[in-house]
Amino acid sequence: MVDGVAPGLKIDRGIPSQLARVPEVATAVERQGYDGCWTGEINHDPFFPLLLAAEHTTRLEIGTSIAVAFARNPMTVAYIGWDLQAYSHGRFLLGLGTQIQPHVEKRFSMPWSHPVRRMREFVTALREIWSSWHEGTPLRFEGDFYTHKIMTPMFVPEPHPYGVPKIFIAAVGEAMTRMCGDVADGLLAHAFTTKRYLDEVTTPALQEGLDRTERSRSDFQVSCPVFVVTGETPEDLHAAGVATRKQLAFYGSTPAYRKVLDLHGWGDLHTELHRLSRQGEWDAMGTLIDDEVLAAFAVVAPLDSVAAKLRERCDGVIDRVLPAFPAGVPDDAVTAVLRELRGLPAAAEWSHP
Measured between alpha carbons, how far is 301 from 303 in angstroms, rounded to an integer? Predict the structure, then answer.
């Protein structure tokens, strides 16, 4: 351990999905010292940007956080994952999520049912497909939701030496989290997660899944975004706090995340936030996030204390952290925080350990 930094702690960040911006941003992210970058599936395809990120970097891991699994099928995802893993020389991380039923059915026009069972089968099918390609074995997968039983030589992609991508699954509830421990290589926690929720809900459920498959926690990664409220001046810190309170209020108004508030005894806050959200009172919602709630969900600190607070948040539960710095924090200040988080001396140029 180096100055309180857990061995193997990785520091990641998101990158934009607009293709024209990816080469410059990905190059800068690698130069700044991050270990990985992630794209989400919001208003752009999540996979195309990673092809460009792979092309313009040499060591940066690249991943989806998340790609909507149920908008696709295991075979299409298997081909995409295989190609990105080969092109990136083994740096691709496949992050999958379920999305919610209305979006799967009414936006993607795809079937929805039994999300935990379906996701388990999706991942199992992926592994069976990749295994057939790697080992040349017949593909004979038949489940409750997916069937893959045809794989003639013409449709097998060229071999590569980089193995299969690691699979991360987005999970908040206990059932999905246990399933992650059963079949996945990593868990993508939501930004609306507190240290207490990770300690008391996520970690025990994950360990149950790992125990069922006799796997070690050291072979598994938990990735988690962390809001950072900071700035060079008190005014900057205040402005970052206002913006983060609004984000937290939006998440807190969503029924799927009420369980996090309930754990802290803040269920009534969700009720009021949900009521205001239905009225479109977004600014008023942010004012309901008091300092105690803000501190539970975010690292709130001046710049010279951010690294220590992030270490405290990650200790024992988070293996990959995505610190969400406010937009106004200069790049050199962010780089200094990253170096301190790794226990490295300040330096003008980044030299990756």
Answer: 6
